[in-house]
């Protein structure tokens, strides 16, 4: 095709030479012949362009057919990755609490003593400080947060009321055995409003536990307890039974402690500049590893972080199974 084009419209092509020869014609004939030749040239150019396009399209289409991938092939089993049971448990807790209207807040893992202890009504001499086995970072009172409760202080200090938040995330304590890991996870909950009381707290906790364990008749018990940042405080137990070493949640044989909660101590509200005459609050804190172990039958805490492939393959979840508001926890 290119040869043909050069033959007619190339530098020394037939048509080009005719066009060049126009200058030798008398004026009148030159105009007529010029017009005719230009019409012919335009037609020839157009023909070459469209033929070229036609050939290019054919080549492209042939290539597309040749390289076609059949995406309708059945899915191949793909076992290389999975959702870690801690991520799954966090997703589930966030899904349930998100449905109840809790907003997610985060705080830094490197905290200061004031937010982690002092503002939460745990003064320096308080025995709770020693119990927390704190990782101190330097002498400027920086530490790795020992619980998610300091996020309460950060949120309340913003003084945007009312408050209804959860703070999920990693926490750290200098402790390492079969029931303790130096890094673990908590979910903190905090509600501050004009009219809140202990029964609101109870109903939220009962709903949370029933939804999480997917047991409508789960026995739940509130037992008086003590936390410096809540007054009154309670620990929550759920019913279980243990047969041949296996724990079955939902039975009524014995009680298992599962989380801490209470009405926010007035001192804590005031430390954050909240008017405790008009506003009340409730809070709760739970351990994600404990929730995961009880729901998924995991009995050694250390396995969560060992990255043993055999364990991960057994306990991880298929990625398509994310809990969401429409589908639920599955
Ligand atoms: N911060 C406590 C801990 O790590 C857990 C806790 C208990 C949090 C009671 C709360 C609460 O908000 O009300 O041991």
Structural category: alpha+beta
Give the uncertain stretches in residue-range form. Answer: none
Q: Please count the helical segments.
A: 11
Query: What would you report as the Rg, rounded to the nearest angstrom?
Result: 37 Å
Counting structural domains, the number is: 2
The small-molecule ligands in this entry are: 3,4-dihydroxyphenylalanine
**Helix content class:** 25-40%
Mean pLDDT: 92
CATH homologous superfamily placement of the largest domain: Bira Bifunctional Protein, Domain 2
Fraction of residues in β-strands: 15-25%
Task: Outline the biggest β-sheet.
Answer: 8 strands, mixed
Topology, number of strands: 10
Describe this entry's structure for a reader.
This protein starts with a helix and ends in a 15-residue tail after the last helix. It is built from 11 helices and 10 strands. The chain folds into 2 domains: 2-66; 85-315, BirA Bifunctional Protein, domain 2, CATH 3.30.930.10. The strands form 2 sheets. Strands 1, 4, 5, 6, 7, 8, 9 and 10 form an 8-stranded mixed β-sheet that branches. Strands 2-3 form a two-stranded antiparallel ribbon. It has helices at 2-9, 14-21, 27-66, 85-99, 113-116, 127-131, 150-158, 198-213, 266-271, 288-296, 309-315; strands spanning 103-104, 110-112, 142-144, 163-172, 183-193, 220-227, 230-243, 246-249, 254-264, 280-287. It has 330 residues and is of the alpha+beta class. Helices cover 38% and strands 22% of the residues. The chain is elongated. The chain binds 3,4-dihydroxyphenylalanine. Residues 147, 149, 188, 227, 230, 260-262, 283-285 line the site of 3,4-dihydroxyphenylalanine.
